[in-house]
Write a structure and sequence with these properties.
heterodimer; A: mainly alpha; B: alpha+beta; 8 helices; globular
């Protein structure tokens, strides 16, 4: 049992680190608004795949990391990611039997919820970002879900 | 496609709700404490040290590529570069010839008016790190932080003019908010006639706005805007931008003025962090005019000579990143 958990945690941490690096990778200004939330997708994947290996802890820690690298109020991404990862964990048994399209739509809903929590905290802390661009990220993220699942499950297999 | 291979499909995840509520409460607590009380600086700095390797890892390939391109650039290109730099240096030196004299004169005049507000003291150079912070906010990460004495509110310049100010300081890095950020405003002055106003950012790196000028204000396309030094955040007299367009709608009471920033907001790599001279304490301010008037009244030869000895260490020598003498005092000053 112990061994099994440890095997699960290495790809988890690795994929989260890579996703964090992708979150700060410099992009041309034109593409910047279209950057998908890689780390959020990765956290969702692990919440669905193995919630017992610390899905929520991963979500909270990843959220804190995003707060630090984005330089926003500490706890914002942590809150959004914790809530949405819990929701994903709750939905996981249904998600597994969904067709890929339905999965993508569910992920879209989760990502939108995530953006909404961020939006709300932004507004509550007094620096609202009303740019329309932020609502594009869920669409792109949902479209990226199938390749991400394929990549991560292959990594997980080994 | 078998996406999920975990066979552990039992419906129960022990205490999911409990853990979710717990973590959410912790996150909410963090948000409130961070926002209301600003006690989290130390925690944030520790976390940022953990995040630093990731930021370095992301930035290094780009820096490596720059270095590679530089090191394989051809001899001809280097020679052309050198010739160009030499020409620029000649022009700069020519302009500098009168600078010392003007600086001394300016110091004397300021002493007469007993204001040293907005006089730069020393500066250090920081490099922008190649990481993106937030797509919807105009901020950059710079590789100088608390350990170099950088403080929140510090003015940041680049070769062209005012770049922005320090928004947050971590141990090794700091975050600079650009003058073009939609939440940034800077007190400016039209260089031609001294008209004072405030330039606010638009969220677009190529544009600032002057929203508080009446339609009748004397401002025309091409006017240079410089910092006025009011508010104490920025040193006085540095270029902020040039007026690009003035729209006057007779139906409106305020003119619509677009400004092109002087700093290369989207291209600069090196930034200057500026320390200003602290304003004179009340007793010194009272003594200053007494000292200033005889100096001005004295024979002209004596005053420049006396003044000439003091300014060079203050302004013309780019202070090396030595230990900051008074970071807490500077921090209080910058606020």
């Amino acid at each position: 049992m112990m061994r099994e958990t440890r095997i699960r945690r290495l790809p988890m941490a690795l994929s989260a680190l890579v996703a964090l690096a992708l979150a700060v990778l410099p992009l041309p200004a034109v593409l910047e608004a279209f950057r998908p939330d890689f780390l959020v997708l990765v956290v969702f994947y692990w919440s669905i795949e193995s919630p017992r290996a610390g899905g929520l802890t991963l979500a909270f820690v990843s959220g804190l990391a995003l707060d630090v690298v984005h330089g926003v109020v500490l706890g914002q991404h942590a809150l959004a990611l914790t809530l949405m990862a819990a929701w994903a964990t709750h939905l996981r048994l249904r998600l597994r039997v969904f067709s890929m399209l339905s999965q993508c739509l569910t992920i879209f809903a989760l990502l939108t919820g995530y953006q909404f929590v961020l939006f709300w905290v932004d507004g509550a802390t007094g620096n609202p970002v009303t740019a329309f661009g932020r609502w594009l990220a869920p669409v792109i993220g949902a479209a990226l879900w199938p390749p991400l699942v394929a990549t991560l499950s292959r990594m997980h297999e080994r | 496609v078998v996406a999920f291979r975990n066979t552990d499909t039992s419906g129960r995840t022990t205490g999911l709700l409990l853990r979710c509520v717990l973590y959410s409460l912790v996150a909410l607590g963090l948000i409130i404490v961070d926002k209301r009380y600003d006690h989290l600086g130390r925690i944030r700095r520790m976390l940022s040290i953990v995040a630093y390797p990731v930021q370095i890892a992301v930035a290094s390939p780009f820096e490596g590529w720059d270095w590679f391109r530089e090191s394989v650039s051809s001899r001809a290109a280097l020679r052309a570069d050198k010739a160009k730099l030499e020409a620029e240096l000649r022009v700069a030196q020519f302009r500098l010839q009168r600078y010392d004299a003007l600086e001394a004169e300016s110091q004397r005049l300021r002493a007469l008016r007993d204001s040293t507000a907005g006089v730069t003291d020393r500066f250090i150079i920081g490099n922008i790190m190649d990481v993106d912070l937030d797509a919807f906010r105009e901020r950059v990460l710079v590789d100088k932080g608390a350990q170099d004495g950088v403080f929140v509110g510090q003015a940041v310049l680049d070769a062209g003019g005012v770049f922005g100010q320090v928004a947050r300081v971590e141990q090794l890095t700091s975050e600079v908010i650009l003058v073009s950020d939609a939440t940034h405003a800077i007190p400016v002055q039209v260089n031609r006639n001294g008209l004072r106003t405030i330039a606010v950012g638009t969220g677009d790196m190529t544009k600032l706005k002057l929203p508080y000028l009446p339609t009748s204000a004397d401002v025309v396309t091409g006017d240079l805007l410089v910092t006025s030094g009011l508010g104490g955040g920025f040193p006085a007299g540095y270029p902020v931008g040039t007026v690009a367009e003035v729209k006057r709608d007779p139906a409106q009471s305020l003119a619509d003025v677009d400004v092109k920033p002087a700093a290369a907001l989207d291209r600069s790599r090196e930034l200057l962090f500026v320390w200003m001279k602290p304003p004179p304490p009340a007793s010194a301010a009272a003594a200053a005019p007494a000292a200033g008037v005889p100096a001005a009244a004295a024979p002209a030869a004596a005053a420049p000579a006396a003044a000439h000895t003091t300014p060079p260490p203050a302004t013309t020598v780019p202070a090396k990143p030595a230990k900051p003498a008074k970071p807490p005092a500077a921090g209080a000053n910058g606020e």
